[in-house]
């Protein structure tokens, strides 16, 4: 029995509310159970120096957790003078995951920055950030297309992410914090809507795993991503 009472292949309740900030070109609040992340997308008519003049666009991301997004208060990273290694790793993951679903030629020489701020954490914050980040990106690109700044849709297909793991010896979908902290195996699966893989992060947290178990987790991840993509499409079409 999972701590939440969910079935092994059952996602947490997912909701995506769009247009939650006034100024960002695209924004949403994604809620996956008790994990809540605010995602905003900002369009800028510039690109990093290493692609300037190439005609290619760029999508990047920043990630952060509010001090009381967890059970005890964390210090703001700005107070410490630098970002932690975990933060840097996650925001790089978000950026390269979102870029995998973008035709950078069609985007043109401009940059879209997706900011993901964790309001409340209960496991799976990076997965929620990627899934919600795509929605914010989609809304921002829609504005570019509506104004005629972009004529060909640069978003190839939705990008979503979900966690899976081995908890109490059983493969489970969409780990919350009690499961994540006790899982023998923990994995994050990032995919296109077509289920083509972008990245898989899997590690044994005290117990090794077999090829068959990995395949079981991949099957669960495909199911979860399918549900998340449906939620994304509902959100952007609303």
Automatic annotation (TrEMBL):
Keywords: Nucleotidyltransferase, RNA-binding, rRNA processing, Transferase, tRNA processing, tRNA-binding
GO-annotated molecular function: 3'-5'-RNA exonuclease activity; tRNA binding; tRNA nucleotidyltransferase activity
EC number(s) from the headed UniProt entry: 2.7.7.56
Reactions that this protein is recorded to catalyse: tRNA(n+1) + phosphate = tRNA(n) + a ribonucleoside 5'-diphosphate
Record domain Exoribonuclease phosphorolytic: where: 10-140, 158-224
GO biological process: rRNA 3'-end processing; rRNA catabolic process; tRNA processing
PROSITE patterns: RIBONUCLEASE_PH
Pfam families noted in UniProt: RNase_PH (PF01138), RNase_PH_C (PF03725)
Keyword rRNA processing attached: yes
Domain of life: Bacteria
Gene3D superfamilies listed in its UniProt record: GHMP Kinase, N-terminal domain
Amino-acid positions noted as binding phosphate in the UniProt annotation, renumbered to this chain: 86, 124-126
The keyword Ribosomal protein belongs to this UniProt entry's keyword annotation: no
Similarity field: Belongs to the RNase PH family.
Assembly mode: Homohexameric ring arranged as a trimer of dimers.
Record function comment: Phosphorolytic 3'-5' exoribonuclease that plays an important role in tRNA 3'-end maturation. Removes nucleotide residues following the 3'-CCA terminus of tRNAs; can also add nucleotides to the ends of RNA molecules by using nucleoside diphosphates as substrates, but this may not be physiologically important. Probably plays a role in initiation of 16S rRNA degradation (leading to ribosome degradation) during starvation.
Protein name: Ribonuclease PH
Originating species: Thalassovita taeanensis
């Amino acid at each position: 029995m999972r701590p939440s009472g969910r079935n092994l292949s059952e996602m947490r309740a997912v909701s995506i509310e769009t247009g939650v900030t006034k100024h960002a070109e695209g924004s949403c609040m994604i809620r996956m159970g008790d994990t809540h992340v605010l995602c905003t997308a900002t369009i800028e008519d510039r690109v990093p120096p290493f692609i300037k003049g190439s005609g290619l666009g760029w999508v990047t991301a920043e990630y952060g957790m509010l001090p009381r997004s967890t059970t005890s208060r964390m210090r703001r990273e700005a107070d410490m003078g630098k970002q932690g290694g975990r933060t840097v790793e996650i925001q790089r993951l978000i950026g390269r995951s979102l870029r995998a679903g973008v035709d950078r030629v069609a985007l043109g020489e401009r940059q879209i920055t997706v900011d993901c701020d964790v309001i409340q954490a209960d496991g799976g914050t990076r997965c929620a950030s990627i899934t919600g980040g795509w929605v914010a990106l989609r809304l921002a690109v829609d504005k570019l297309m509506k104004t005629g700044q972009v004529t060909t849709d640069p978003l190839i297909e939705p990008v979503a992410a979900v966690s899976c793991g081995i908890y109490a010896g059983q493969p489970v979908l969409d780990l919350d914090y009690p499961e994540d902290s006790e899982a023998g195996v923990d994995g994050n699966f990032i995919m296109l809507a077509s289920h083509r893989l972008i990245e898989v992060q899997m590690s044994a947290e005290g117990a090794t795993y077999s090829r068959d178990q990995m395949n079981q987790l991949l099957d669960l991840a495909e199911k979860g991503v399918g549900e998340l993509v449906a939620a994304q499409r509902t959100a952007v079409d609303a």
